[in-house]
Amino acid sequence: MMDAGSRPAESELASAAIALDAAGEQAAARPTIYVYEAPVRTCHWVNALSILVLMVSGYLIGTPPPMVAASGNFVIGYIRFAHFAAAQVLAVFFLVRILWALFGNHHSRQIFYIPVHRKQFWKDVLHEIRWYAFLEREPKIYVDHNPLAQTAIFTGFTLLVPFMIVTGFALFSEGAGIDSWQHELFGWVFALWPNSHDVHTWHRLGMWALTIFLMVHIYAAVREDIMSPQSIISSMISGVRQCRDNRRRGAAPICSKPRRVLLLGIGNILWADEGFGVRAVEEFHHRYAVPAEVTILDGGTQGLQLVNYLQESHRLIVFDAIDYGLEPGELKLVRDEEVPRFTGVRKMSLHHTGFQEVISACCLLGHCPKHLVLIGCQPLALDDWGGPLTPAVRNQIGPAVELARFILVEWGVQVTPRITPLRKSEWLLANGIDHLHYEMRART
Amino acid sequence: MGAATETFYGVIRRQGITRRNFHKFCSLTATSLGLGPLAASRIANALETKPRIPVIWMHGLECTCCSESFIRSAHPLMKDIVLSMISLDYDDTIMAAAGHQAEAILEETRAKYKGQYVLAVEGNPPLNEGGMFCIHAGKPFVEKLKMMAEDAMAVIAWGSCAAWGCVQAARPNPTQATPIDKVITNKPIIKVPGCPPIAEVMTGVVTFITTFGKPPELDRQGRPKMFYSQRIHDKCYRRAHFDAGQFVEEWDDEAARKGYCLYKMGCKGPTTYNACSSVRWNGGVSFPIQSGHGCIGCSEDGFWDKGSFYDRLTNIKQFGIEKNADQIGMVAAGAVGAGIGVHAAVTALKRYAGKRDDANRRH
Amino acid sequence: MELHGSQGFKPGKRIVVDPVTRIEGHMRVEVNVDSNNVIRNAVSSGTMWRGIEIILNGRDPRDAWAFTERICGVCTGTHALTSVRAVENALSIAIPENANSIRNIMQLCLQVHDHLVHFYHLHALDWVDVMSALKADPKATSALAQSISSWPLSSPGYFKDLQIRLTKFVESGQLGPFKSGYWGHAAYKLPPEANLMAVAHYLEALDFQKDIVKIHAIYGGKNPHPNWLVGGVSCAINVDGTGAVGAINMERLNLVSSVIDRCIEFTEKVYLPDIVTIGSFYKNWLYGGGLSGKNVMAYGDIPENANDYSAKNLKLPRGVIINGNLNEVLPLDHADPEQIQEFVSHSWYKYDDESKGRHPWDGITEPNYLLGPNAKGTKTDIKELDEGGKYSWIKAPRWRGNAVEVGPLARYIVGCAQNKPEFKEPTEKLLKTLGLPATALFSTLGRTAARALECEWAANQMRYFQDKLVARIKAGDSSTANIDKWEPESWPKEARGYGFTEAPRGALAHWIKIKEMKIDNYQCVVPTTWNGSPRDPKGNIGAFEAALMDTPMAAPEQPLEILRTIHSFDPCLACSTHVMSPDGQEMAAVRVR
After folding, report:
1. CB contact under 8 A, A205 and B314
2. Is B250 on the interface with C (CB under 8 A)?
3. Which residues of B28-40 are buried (b: 16+ CB within 10 A; e: fewer)?
4. Does residue A241 belong to any structural domain of this protein?
5. Secondary structure of residue C381 in the 3-state scheme
6. Whole domain around residue A205: which residue ranges?
7. pTM for the predicted model, two decimal places
8. CB contact under 8 A, C28 and B291
9. Residue A42 sits in a domain of what CATH number?
10. What residues in B contact A180, CB-CB < 8 Å?
């Protein structure tokens, strides 16, 4: 995993001043996060190419081109060969893609489901639709696919491609014969459609459905690459999602008075990975300067005492170690109504307060932040008294920070990378319990 | 074949073996099988008088092309089948008896050959109007059919009518003509589809049973693999033209006169399972493609309702549309494309306007 | 048309024959016989129905021939030919001359095959006693055979071997299709030698018939159910160019030609002599005339030149004869609403006013399956029909209110009345050979003889059109299809037309209405509809029923005479289809020429 987010070395900060891109920004200074792993990207492009070959050759098989006068050609033969070869490639790489989803990060699983039961998901889908209908000023920023894209890819690709593979292999088995392995595995298709001409027809319709999906997919990717702050096309090549501020320039402010934003890290630095949230907010403070309306806060284990801060804030980003049920070290971003689902705690004593209670208290008091974002990391170890963050979690500090930056940019908050490092007196955690002195020195 | 398929006794006598030696053979057989002295005469009797398998051939709603095809068989000849291989005890189309005498044969066969006769069915039963769209001896045909199926050893469904429903079952199937396997559910049914099936395929199935004493191996749709496991396309002699991309584009064009592939004229060879391109028709003289017309897929389920015989892509009837896949696909893709175009234009306009405002604001 | 006073003849025995076998399709006959066992009342019922016309609605007209061809697999091809003619008529499509020749050859081939198979395998067992053949003297059989024909299969040894095989077959106890036949019936008149000869020919015809249809296989791809094409024929011709092996070439033409020669030989040397033999032994059995001496009708067929369906261009006769007036052959017009009408008073259909007939254009077909009040049994177990009520799935077509007979006999009567030598001379010759007057034609025997004469005519016409085809190819024309109007986009928004043929069994026609490139309405009126028709409101009986009247039965429980007469019409019940609309709202515009 690319360690794109460790604390920028001095040299990197210096070089950040050099690279200015077409958007007038410093490329290295943009928020970036690693999203698409290499197998995901490989499969994407291999499958895309295969599908393209399949569609063109498939179309020609059903509607052959005008006859070539010279004999001795093998025109349809070659077209069919291209079709079958690409089909095999697609079948293999689609299978690989499915397998990778079992081993890869949670982004790699995203295209295999739609969380239909989550209200927030559908709200976000609606928001995205409104964005396309020119009814929203700004799209929301997502690290991976936005919910509408997720829905589209699931229905137009993830369901459709297996359908094409299954019907395709069934059709191939007609020529391969009823003793072939293709017929063994896929001959049941003809139990559904005894007249195989129907299978051809549905396969052909599937080709058109894929065509429509591709048109929309490519259009949306290009459009969003231009129109929204996040990178789209290049992400599927480099694997990294970048976020540009450029669209904020000249855009009318959302409201006249800037609303308060609270950037909060909670957790217990004494308990190994439990300290993640604090370390993340600490690192953020090291890297970036924010305007006055943003409060950066080490919330530690203060529990309900944080209520005041929340009440004052319109928007909240909280870093925390969260048991998502993912692999240790996996980062996940959760928004709004989903946040309380994950910030509950297994109560071991009456003194335990989860962040959920903090949020609930705010709501009861009538002033809860309107926008909630939780940037959580799956911990490995919570019970190592005095122990450091485990490496997997420590390596996610950087990405978590960048993620927060994504969100702040989405909210129209100016975030400036610090060129001059903070003075010690400005550090968030003092008295030797900052990350460097508390943990890192111990390692050496 | 012919007389040679008469009794075993007849065969060996013609080969010059004396009756005395024949009985010696039977005694030896009885001894070596440990059956005792009386068995010898029983063996002799069986070998002398093994009956031909009784066949009851019934007709439902049909056009009689299956019977007509059957009698076209070049090998074996129809006369040899009827005189020497099977006992065609009942067949409306050629039997001497009519009315009561004919019906009595059905009853007699059920009683005398219970579990031993083959029921061959041409056509199918209609279920609407109490089944009285096909009346047989004053009663619905479906009743007679079920009754005769009860004591049959096996059932053969001749043709696409009995196997799938065929033309009378085509949309909207006004009589509710029903394939026989929906009506006879407790007997093995050999489907020999086609409109009609090839003569030598039909007699091939019958003689397989009489020669090997068992039904042929069937595919998952109940058709004999020996004739229905490959498509017309797989054995078509014009396949090389298909692979080479040499097609007839219009009737009677140069390509037609050279016998090029009929794929573009709607040939359903690629999706039709039958023996037409190998066994061919009428003693191997020709078959549809060889005579210049594409295959219409007549041995496939529901082939009447897949759109025109001259279209490569067949019709979708779901959702109340009657269009083929390309028509639907192109319209849909075109609509989406147009939508994308409009959307892109609006996007560009808005962006341009936004940039201009940008510039204005900055000044 | 006189009423048959014996309808509903209550006294006397009621005889039911169901199923009638050795026909195509499903049919039931009931008769009443008086104390002398003479038939005084006849009831013919069509007992099947499929509804193919409604199935055709909404489909591509260029596909219609394939659907209609499956109306009947015995007269395979005739419905397809009628259909393509109907579409071509509606869309004004002209076919090339070669296509006309090839179509004629295919139709004539069907006539030859169908008549031959009908006589030997469907009809012969009503004249020939198979069991009696076992008693024949093979030498005498040979003498008989050689006295009537030069057909080579006629040696004593040949007949002896056949007799041995037949004997073994009978002794096996498993009589197959001959089981429970009416062997020994008093109505059989042939001596054993004639029976043996006939059985030999039955088997030879069974062998030969499969070869006749190779002509269909070559031009149409297969038989039964060869392929046809709107605008021409689908078999391209290429006699000696590149790739000729992929088309109709010299080898294909030679095959057709040799089959034609064999057809001519078989009909002239086997079929016709057998008819003469049978005629000579049955010359006193002249029952079964029915309507043939009164009302007959023929549409005409076999156009000499392409695209001309007027009477003068048709080689088979066209016209109507009423009340036996042979001096006046009346013209017919399918469009005239007063000429052809269909009645349903005794058919299982419903009109608002069933006392009136409806011209097919105004036709309604709404099924109404009801038995009359005097019927015995139940709706699903009919013991006896009530001819006073509804009793058949066949409608009752009438020409100017007259019931008519159609078929080979009708064609020959019209042809003779028109003094056409190709029909008149063979007829007169046959009558002379048998020593029978002209009126003998109006009988079951006459109907049977006419079929044989027509078979011979048809075989020779095949030679004529094959030669014509070759001559045209020689002159440089190999075209077989006109594709000018193949694409539906080239058709008018609405169109209608009709096509007709003379099927082996008689006059056949289809009507089509096309709208927005799809079939809007399709109707067939078929020979057996005319012949097998039930009564109309005036009580006029149909041809089958009329032919049975006044026929004596030697043994009423063994209805041989009924079968003999019914079979002489060559009934085809699958053909006598009609439209059904489940909701009664479809306009079944059946239009008969």
Report:
1. no
2. yes
3. eebeeeeeeeebb
4. no
5. strand
6. 38-227
7. 0.86
8. no
9. 1.20.950.20
10. none
